[in-house]
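Re: beginner question about structure tokens

> Can someone show what the tokenized structure looks like for a real chain? I only ever see the sequence side.

Sure, here's an example I had lying around. Input first:
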Amino acid sequence: MSTDSTPKQTARERLAEAHRAELKANARRRRVVVAASVAAVLALAGATTVAIATADGGPGTASAAPTPGKPVVTPANTTGPDGTVVVYGKADAPHTLKVYEDFRCPICKELEDSAGQSVQQLADSGTYKIEYHLAAFLDDGLGGKGSKTALAAAGAALNEGVDKFKQFHDVLYANQPAEKVDGFGDVNHILDLAAKVPGLKTDAFTKAVTEGTYLPWAGKVADAFQASGVRGTPTVILDGKPLQVLTQQGPLTGEQYTALVRQSIGG
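And the corresponding structure tokens:
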């Protein structure tokens, strides 16, 4: 294992440890041989041609299970099978960018910090629309319930409007706790972060977050991620083609990302 002590490398090493523990748990539950190894994940994370980096979600993790006893309430403004996809941008945009991520994923945050503004600008300009496919598998790998709690709160934000969802999405990444600190598992902290989005913290939003109204929906969204075949976060796919958004030097800058998109669509 590398002795690089930079925050980026440390995050990847820690995620690899969580990944290894998760694979063992899945093997016990399902009695199957898991083909992906931690070494393979780390190799992908450092490869120059990687489109998928960080931990393997794996099928059937406990964090994806619906909350017992609660009905599934789907937020307004969803799309896709069972309302599990969130679309940001113009519906008639000529291209579609699929983004797979987990709110607790530190590499997702790195990409958001580096190129997130450019990702949004291309959607706002009508180059593509963004389909968000959200996961919650890091709760099992790292412990706690922050991924799913944040995802449910994002559903409450989505119910207020797609723009509110996107702003809250950005606030969550800007304030992401260390990967082994379950800060997003505290609904009071989630509500404090929601106050950073103008007009989001309505009575309806606060009630939904406090009561866990969208937790069962978050379970369905996480299940859809597990069924997608995508093996890690962040994964970024433009018109069916994975974009190489991570390199040995780290995530692409906004300028590099925009150039890659332009090259991919031929414009």
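Each token stands for a local structural state, so reading them left to right follows the chain. Residues 1-6, 19-66 have pLDDT under 50 and may be disordered.
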